[in-house]
């Protein structure tokens, strides 16, 4: 009998249609149990913790990430694995943040949900939940096979901090193009063992400090100087700059001067690409050479979700901007691959 702790935060999986407005609204975990009577017949001892209130994940907040991390910390020793039922809209942000907060994890933390509520006939909820439970309990030689935070959706297991929601219409809602799928469920669940994190020799530490003073500057041809400066001058410690291709930007002197002044004032600017596949390569083109010279930080192949949550986590832990700048460019939880 495996002991699994389920954290139910909300999301489509447990939603019902409001008869008056026709919109989907979150409902309690009993709805899930009612639609999955088989749950009680399985080889799992399930403990359910429902959040109050249950939310659509578009309402996710940093303090809820801390609550989730601390719930896992407080129940860590007593359970074989953890399943978090969560709306898909911000699931990749939560999975990324939890990967940073839960250092040295030696047990599986599997986030899942569904595109259709569990009460609908064609729902993907049952399969997702059953597969998430199986992965959360899977062991080899007495150790958990998965020792990291993952997303399970449509029979594929992804590293949480490498994934993003790319489809709001298909059951295949997530992708992680810069890192291979960690497992695929068919008749058997096949694990991509070489690509998994192994924390066997690491100490489990739950962090709980988050500093959300982060802003985003998404570049586009024709963006106005005033727009750029309003972001650069906002009251934050770091700015994620979403650039073109391999990390390129326009080379106008006023633009480089604005970035440089912002860095001189003590802020970090992290370069990540608007492309979903591939990596930033500062200096590959003339259009990114100047960025390196003024101290723009390299986000390599991090997802947007990882970049944002990693900055919030590092800023919560570290008071020095230079330390944040250092660690944001290092691989700390399998979230980036260096190319230099
Ligand atoms: N809006 C929903 C949520 O993120 C969508 C979903 O669950 O898939 O909570």
Q: For the residues shown, what is the average pLDDT?
A: 94
Bound molecules: aspartic acid
> What's the alpha carbon Rg, rounded to whole Å?
21 Å
- CATH architecture level-2 label of the largest domain: 3-Layer(aba) Sandwich
**The CATH homology group name of the largest domain:** L-asparaginase, N-terminal domain
CATH fold category name of the largest domain: Rossmann fold
> Given the structure, what is the number of helices?
9
Largest sheet: 8 strands, mixed
By secondary-structure content and strand pairing, the structural class works out as alpha/beta
Instruction: Give the CA-based shape.
Output: globular
| Total discrete domains | 2
Into which percentage range does the β-strand content fall? 15-25%
Q: Catalogue the unreliable spans.
A: none
Oligomer: single chain
The string of secondary-structure elements, in order, is EEEHEHEHEEHEEEEEEEEEEHEHEHEHH
Percentage of helical residues?
25-40%
Termini separation (Å)?
47 Å
CATH class of the largest domain: Alpha Beta
Order of strands side by side in the largest beta sheet? 4-1-5-7-10-11-14-15
């Amino acid at each position: 009998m495996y002991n699994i702790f389920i954290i139910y935060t909300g999301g489509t999986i447990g939603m019902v249609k409001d008869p008056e407005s026709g919109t989907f609204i979150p409902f309690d975990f009993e709805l899930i149990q009612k639609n999955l009577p088989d749950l009680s017949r399985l080889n799992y001892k399930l403990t359910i913790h429902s959040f109050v209130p249950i939310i659509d994940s578009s309402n996710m907040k940093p303090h809820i990430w801390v609550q989730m991390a601390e719930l896992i910390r407080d129940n860590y020793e007593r359970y074989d694995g953890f399943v978090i039922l969560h709306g898909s809209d911000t699931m990749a942000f939560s999975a990324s943040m939890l990967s940073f907060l839960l250092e040295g994890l030696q047990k599986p933390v599997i986030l899942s949900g569904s595109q259709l509520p569990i009460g609908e006939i064609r729902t993907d909820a049952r399969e997702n939940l059953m597969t998430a439970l199986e992965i959360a309990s899977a062991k080899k030689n007495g150790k958990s096979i998965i020792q990291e935070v993952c997303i399970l959706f449509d029979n594929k297991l992804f590293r949480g901090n490498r994934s993003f929601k790319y489809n709001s219409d298909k059951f295949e809602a997530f992708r992680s193009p810069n890192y291979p799928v960690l497992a695929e469920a068919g008749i058997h669940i096949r694990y991509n063992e070489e690509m998994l994190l192994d924390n066997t020799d690491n100490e489990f530490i739950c962090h709980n400090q988050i500093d959300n003073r982060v802003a985003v500057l998404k570049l586009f041809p024709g963006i106005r100087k005033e727009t750029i400066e309003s972001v650069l001058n906002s009251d934050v410690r770091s700015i994620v700059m979403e650039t073109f291709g391999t990390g390129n930007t326009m080379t106008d002197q006023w633009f480089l001067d604005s970035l440089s002044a912002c860095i001189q004032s003590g802020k970090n600017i992290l370069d990540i690409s608007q492309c979903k596949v591939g990596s930033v390569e500062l200096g590959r083109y003339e259009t990114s050479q100047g960025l390196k010279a003024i101290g723009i930080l390299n986000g390599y192949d991090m997802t947007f979700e990882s970049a944002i949550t990693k900055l919030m986590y590092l800023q919560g832990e570290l008071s020095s901007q230079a330390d944040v700048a250092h660690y944001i460019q290092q691989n700390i939880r399998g979230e980036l691959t260096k190319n230099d």
